[in-house]
Design brief:
The complex is a heterodimer of chains A (156) and B (225).
Chain A (H helix, E strand, L loop, with lengths): L3 H4 L9 H26 L6 H25 L7 H11 L1 H23 L1 H6 L7 H6 L21
Helix pairs in contact in A: 2-3
Chain B lengths: L22 H29 L7 H4 L15 H25 L3 H31 L20 H32 L2 H5 L3 H26 L1
The chains are: A mainly alpha (156), B mainly alpha (225).
C-alpha cells in the first residue's frame, strides 16, 4: 500500500503539543481525584451506600480516563468515523458482558447463602490474628512460606 | 461504471484507503481490540468471583507498604499511585515521540523514546518490588495470608486474580519496553529517515498507550474499589 503513507500525513487534524499537555493535565487531575476518593472511602463502613456511591464515582472517573487515553493519546477521536465505529462497536459487547456476569455472580452468592448452609457457615469463620497467620495459617491448606528462604515459586 | 461522483458508498470500491490509515496501523487496532477482550475477560471473571463471595480482603490493608519504609508502615495507595503516574508520564513521552515523528524530528524522537523506555523499566521495577514484598508476606498463587475486610477467613481467589492479572499486564509492559527499544535502535540506525516516515513509531505508540489504558482498569479494580 504505497499510497497510504501519503494520506496519513494530512489526517492529523487535532493533535499538537498543546493538546498533549492539556490531556496530560486532565489525566493527572482525574487520577488525583480518584486517589482522594480512595482515601476518603477508607473511613466508611463496609457495604454502606456511601461507599458504594464513591466506588461508582471512581468507575465513572476510570471511564473518563479511558476516553482521554483512547481518544487523544491513541488518536482515535481524530480518525475517520468508519474506523472509530469498527473499533468501538465491538467493544459495546462489554456492556452485556459486565452486566450478565456480575449479575450471575451475585445471584450465585444469594442462592448459596439461601440454600447452602455450609457455604454460609464457612464465610462467617473469623480469621486468626495476624501474628498467627504469618507463621501458619490454619484456615486453609495452602503451604506456608518460610521467610528466611529465598523466593522460589517452584516450591509450591 | 455508474456515473455517480465520489460518494461515501464509493469509498469501498477500490483505489482508496477507506479508513485513511495504513494497513499496519489498522491491524494494530484490531489486535488491541482482541487484547482488550482478553483483559476484559480476566477482569470480568475477577468481578464475577468477587460478587459470588461473601467476603473479600480490603486492598488498603494489603497494599500498604513502600520501598525503604520502616517495617509495619501504613501507607495505602501511595506506592501504587506512584506506579500509575510513572505509566501516565511514559505514555505522554510516547505521544511526544509520535508527534516528533510526524515532524521528522529524529533527535526529539530519540529523546522521548528513551524517556518512555525509562518509564517502562521504572514501572517494571516497582512491580517487581511489590511482588517480592507480597511474596515475603506469604501471598502467592494458591496462598493468601490476608483476611477478608470483615475479619472472616479468605479464600485464595484474591491473590490468584491479583498475581494473574497484574502479571499479564506486567508482561505487556515488558513486551512494550522491548518494542520501544527496537524502535529506538531503528531510529538510531536511520531506518525511518530512509523510509521517509515514522509511522512505525505510531504503531508502537498505540501498543504502549494500550498498556497504560489497561493499567487504568487494573489499578481501579484491584487497588481502589
Amino acid at each position: 500500500m504505497e499510497h497510504t503513507h501519503t494520506t496519513t500525513h494530512d489526517e492529523h487534524a487535532g493533535g499538537g503539543v498543546k493538546e498533549i499537555v492539556k490531556v496530560t493535565i486532565i489525566l493527572s487531575v482525574l487520577t488525583v481525584v480518584e486517589l482522594v476518593l480512595g482515601f476518603w472511602m477508607m473511613g466508611m463502613p463496609l457495604e454502606s451506600t456511601m461507599r458504594m456511591a464513591v466506588k461508582g464515582a471512581i468507575i465513572i472517573l476510570m471511564m473518563a480516563k479511558a476516553f482521554y487515553i483512547v481518544g487523544y493519546f491513541m488518536h482515535l477521536k481524530h480518525e475517520i468515523r468508519n474506523l472509530i465505529m469498527t473499533i468501538v462497536v465491538p467493544l459495546a459487547l462489554f456492556v452485556w458482558f459486565i452486566i450478565a456476569f456480575l449479575y450471575d455472580g451475585n445471584s450465585f452468592r444469594n442462592l448459596r447463602n439461601t440454600y447452602d448452609p455450609y457455604f454460609k457457615e464457612q464465610s462467617t469463620i473469623k480469621a486468626e490474628k495476624k501474628e498467627e497467620t504469618k507463621h501458619g495459617d490454619a484456615t486453609h491448606e495452602a503451604p506456608k512460606h518460610d521467610e528466611a528462604k529465598p523466593a522460589d515459586p517452584k516450591a509450591h | 461504471m455508474a456515473s455517480t461522483t465520489v460518494t461515501p458508498t464509493k469509498l469501498w470500491s477500490g483505489g482508496k484507503s477507506p479508513f485513511n490509515v495504513e494497513y499496519g496501523k489498522l491491524m494494530m487496532w484490531y489486535f488491541l481490540m482482541s487484547d482488550a477482550f482478553t483483559f476484559g475477560a480476566f477482569l470480568i471473571s475477577y468481578g464475577t468471583i468477587r460478587f459470588s463471595t461473601n467476603g473479600w480482603p480490603d486492598p488498603n490493608l494489603v497494599f500498604k507498604s513502600f520501598p525503604f519504609a520502616p517495617h509495619g508502615v501504613n501507607a495505602p495507595l501511595v506506592f501504587v499511585s506512584i506506579m500509575t503516574f510513572i505509566l501516565i508520564i511514559s505514555s505522554v513521552t510516547m505521544v511526544l515521540a509520535v508527534h516528533a515523528g510526524h515532524n521528522m524530528d529524529k533527535k526529539k524522537v530519540v529523546k522521548n523514546l528513551i524517556w518512555t523506555i525509562i518509564g517502562g523499566l521504572a514501572f517494571l521495577g516497582c512491580q517487581a518490588w511489590e511482588w517480592t514484598h507480597l511474596y515475603h508476606e506469604g501471598a502467592w498463587w494458591g496462598s493468601n495470608p490476608f483476611p477478608n475486610a470483615d475479619g472472616t477467613a479468605s479464600s485464595t481467589n484474591f491473590t490468584n486474580y491479583f498475581f494473574t492479572i497484574t502479571g499479564f499486564h506486567g508482561f505487556h509492559v515488558f513486551s512494550g519496553v522491548i518494542i520501544n527499544i527496537i524502535m529506538l535502535i531503528m531510529t538510531l540506525m536511520d531506518k525511518f529517515e530512509q523510509r521517509g516516515h515514522y509511522l512505525m513509531i505510531e504503531k508502537a505508540g498505540l501498543y504502549w498507550h494500550f498498556v497504560d489504558l489497561v493499567w487504568v482498569f487494573v489499578f481501579t479494580c484491584f487497588y481502589l474499589i
